[in-house]
Amino acid sequence: MAKPIVIFDSGVGGLSIYQEIKQVLPQVPVVYCSDMAGFPYGPKPEQEVIERTSQCLNALAERFDPSLAVIACNTASTISLPRVRGELGFPVVGVVPAIKTASEYSKNRCIGLLATPGTVARCYTNRLIDDFAADCQVIRVGSSELVHTAEQYLRGEPLCDDQLRAILSPFLTAEPQPDAVVLGCTHFPLLREALERIAPGIHWIDSGPAIARRVVSLLADHDHQPAGDDRFVHTGEDGLADTLALGRMGFAEITSLELMPPVN
Q1: Would 264 be classed as within a structural domain?
Q2: Is residue 125 very low, low, confident or very high in pLDDT (cuts 50, 70, 90)?
Q3: Residue 170 belongs to a domain with what CATH number?
Q4: Residue 178 in contact with residue 111, Cβ under 8 Å?
Q5: Given CB 3.0 to 4.6 Å as the disulfide criterion, which of 89, 137, 240, 255 pairs with 110?
Q6: Does 239 or 135 have the greater pLDDT score?
């Protein structure tokens, strides 16, 4: 059996990364792990997120012996990568806001960042803006509400355009309006169609394609045959995963990952 890629997130936002990777590496088996028992990471203290990410990835490494892991969570990536890269014996790819890509795209030098409140305010994000968008006006919007909205949407609940419009209002009312907005949370590309409908003049940019290209380059020398089925692994109660349309996404198996309860 080929070694799988592990994709790890606090919830289901990383399914946007999963979809990008499967487009370019359809033959590679994937284990997607959703730490539903620890969701959401955004409001948690940084050290708690680091410990939780380390605990989950080490358990996944022991169980699945992956060739590579992707931390498909901006919050966990920006603070946990040094720790887990030192612990694990395979490459770990992080997801960070695509500030550079937005800056390269922008014509009016006004861009936006839509992320969790923690990511919007983090020093790592400030450095990305200083390094790649110093000549841009950057409008930052931090929303935990939108993370929960994306989770509910994947469980079949309808979207409320008025709610989305209220969250996006700092972009919509700005002068000038940003011509590019970074989706700085992996949950948010799952809402792309709705975002494009509400703000058609904005180009929405996420890290998914760049992450997929990075995974391809790291696995260039690996033999992926024969491929196995994709698996969805989760912490927490079994019923939390049952409401997701995982079979249609390509997952042949849904299993749980036993961990200690998250720190409160």
Answers
A1: no
A2: very high
A3: 3.40.50.1860
A4: yes
A5: 137
A6: 135
